Amino acid sequence: MTRKKVTLAYIANDAARKATFKKRKNGLMKKVSELSTLCGIDACAIVYSSYQAEPEVWPSTLGVHRAIARFKNMSEMDQSKRMVNQQEFIRQRIVKAEEQLKKQLHENREREIVQVMYRALVGEGLQGLIIVDLNDLGWMLDKTGKEIEERIKKLKKSTPSSEQAASAELQADKAAPENHAALNDVVAVEATQNQPWYMDLLKPRNEGDALNLGRNDPMPSYPYGNPTPSWSDFYFP
Amino acid sequence: MTRKKVTLAYIANDAARKATFKKRKNGLMKKVSELSTLCGIDACAIVYSSYQAEPEVWPSTLGVHRAIARFKNMSEMDQSKRMVNQQEFIRQRIVKAEEQLKKQLHENREREIVQVMYRALVGEGLQGLIIVDLNDLGWMLDKTGKEIEERIKKLKKSTPSSEQAASAELQADKAAPENHAALNDVVAVEATQNQPWYMDLLKPRNEGDALNLGRNDPMPSYPYGNPTPSWSDFYFP
DNA sequence: CAAGCTATGTATAAGCG
DNA sequence: TCGCTTATACATAGCTT
């Protein structure tokens, strides 16, 4: 027999599942490649799974290369900075408070989307795919915050008790990003001792790398609490 | 005639290109869906493009829903925090500096990968796709930092002048994340005046949203400079 | 297992309403 | 421009090596 009608269900057989994954992953990569070429979309695809040690990247590593090239342009921004002359200084001060508020909002949204993306999958210890047209990643920044608040409001009604904590967490994060510091430390310490449940999700490639990653930055001191904690702290203590 | 051999090249005709995009996008979504089902991968797919106002999400909005559910688990982490007893307090202090160093490294890598992903595509004002198996997003955190440094070293040799700034930028970011604050302000101000080149890439959905997003957080004050700047500041000043 | 090999199910380029 | 149809190119399940 050659090929049945593809039962759309989990493939129990390990070998078969792996084979299928490999084939379909390749197919998916090709599709992305084609979509990119045909529609003139500058696409980047990264597929990383427990099936393969090295991540699959398309196109080649061009996406990363380009990204690196972007870093060069940072200097252009610096130039812009210097181009600001005295005349603009006054106006700059006037809008400063406003800018700072906006900045805070955006930073919060950034943190939220990253947490959302990460926890949604890694937090569950599952595998996953994310396909994002980055033409306007800003959508996520714009939308996530609103949606989260909206959904939490709705969820509050259905499961008030457990949801309460989540809301509180959000509020805290918004108002004072640095208030996670203590928790981070605790989590980190716990990890070195008895590996709590969420640490099982953590499988660092090289244990040794955790401490010395080939960087020799001087550790900056933060007079007011710890540096703004990031979601990675929870998983890479 | 029905169907030619698919010339793998940019489709000049606008209508045809849009049609193809739509079809293939749907196909891609289906493929992801199938891969998820067949291989037991908890996948999430988001496709956003200039072709469509609303982003395509698979599975439905389940991914986001799940993400929200994750937020609930934050309370579990809080529980862990409280579970730390006096006995562990000493040891906690002992490894604190070490943890802080690691934390700093991870935060820097996080910032880098986000910048890389974003600038690689949005920075160029192009459309794009990112497919990431989030089973171990940590790979990015592990890898990006190293690769960036590595590549910058190589690039230094080929284009020393322009690359110098990039390297410096990186170093600065690593050593003192808050030193971007001033730059952010400048960029923001410039945007309100004469829209520099990199602002052309900025197309916020709702102008009004930028200032008031329905949140009424009190703006925290940062005694030492501005809050840790985020990449979003550059694009959403 | 990985790599090849068909036979067949699917995706989809063109045409049409 | 959109949706639907149809003929065909492509992807790939199940085997074989």
From TrEMBL, chains A, B:
InterPro entries: MADS-box/MEF2_TF, SRF-like_MADS-box, TF_MADSbox, TF_MADSbox_sf. Residues 1-50 form the MADS-box domain. Residues 161-170 have a biased composition (Low complexity). It is found in: Nucleus. Residues 155-175, 209-237 are annotated as: Disordered. Pfam families: SRF-TF (PF00319). This is MADS-box domain-containing protein. It comes from Eucalyptus grandis. The lineage of its organism: Eukaryota, Viridiplantae, Streptophyta, Embryophyta, Tracheophyta.
